[in-house]
Amino acid sequence: KSANPQWREQFDFHYFSDRRDILDIEVWRKDNKKHEELLGTCHVDITALPTKQTNCLELPLEKHPGSLLMLIAVAPCTGVSISDLCVCPLGDPNERQQISQRYCIKNSFRDMKDIGFLQVKVLKAVDLMAADFSGKSDPFCVLELGNDMLQTHTVYKNLNPEWNKVFTFPIKDIHDVLEVTVFDEDGDKPPDFLGKVAIPLLSV
């Protein structure tokens, strides 16, 4: 019931600067569970924003009245990575030694926010459900830890996909749960759910 809503929500996205990225924003009006109406869209070219500072942007909605006021900060992303299995970040003995030194007892109070990190190797899935009429699926895998989310590439027309990717997350809360979800890519439509597992960090 407001034409001037205030959300005051914060979202974190992992942006890798080796590609051009546009942040797409949509504003929707919801009357009830069944009726929704698009009130406007706007776009932000992330590559054009100054880094290491908070940018205050007033973005007019395209083809609709109104505007959005947003604060967007582009900051260096620490501790998060995606790599192929053949170049696994922990495969180097020297790197393992540096990490052991970083988390040894005498250094445990040097950075209170640096709890540790989680490395996940997503190898493959087996016997997935067929989501397409062809009897196949186009699966990809999404990993979520706290408000960090990373995903694999899509393997098309396959019920036994192999991703062989290594994901590294910084741990912000030892009580977080790693959620691994497999979806079927469905073109412009929302992806279909194929399955999910939840792994509490305290169980690792």
Walk me through the structure:
- Helix content is 5%, strand content 44%.
- By secondary structure, the protein is mainly beta.
- Strand 3 (54-60) and strand 4 (67-73) form a beta hairpin.
- The radius of gyration is 21 Å and the shape is globular.
Please specify the SSE layout and strand pairing:
Layout: E1 22-30, E2 36-45, E3 54-60, E4 67-73, E5 81-84, H1 93-102, E6 116-124, E7 139-145, E8 148-151, E9 162-171, E10 177-186, E11 189-200
Antiparallel strand pairs: 1-2, 3-4, 5-9, 6-9, 7-8, 7-10, 10-11
Domain C2: 1-59, 93-204
Family: Belongs to the MCTP family.
InterPro entries: C2_dom, C2_domain_sf
Please give a quick description of this structure.
One of its GO terms (cellular component) is synaptic vesicle membrane. This protein has one helix at 93-102; strands at 22-30, 36-45, 54-60, 67-73, 81-84, 116-124, 139-145, 148-151, 162-171, 177-186, 189-200.
Strand content: 35-45%
Alpha-beta content class: mainly beta
CATH topology of the largest domain: Immunoglobulin-like
Mean pLDDT: 86
The biggest beta sheet reads: 4 strands, antiparallel
Query: Which shape, going by the Cα principal axes?
Result: globular
Order of adjacent strands in the largest pleated sheet: 8-7-10-11
Amino- and carboxy-terminal Cα gap: 46 Å
Keywords: Calcium, Membrane, Metal-binding, Repeat, Transmembrane, Transmembrane helix
Organism: Alaudala cheleensis (Asian short-toed lark)
InterPro entries: C2_dom (IPR000008), C2_domain_sf (IPR035892)
Pfam families: C2
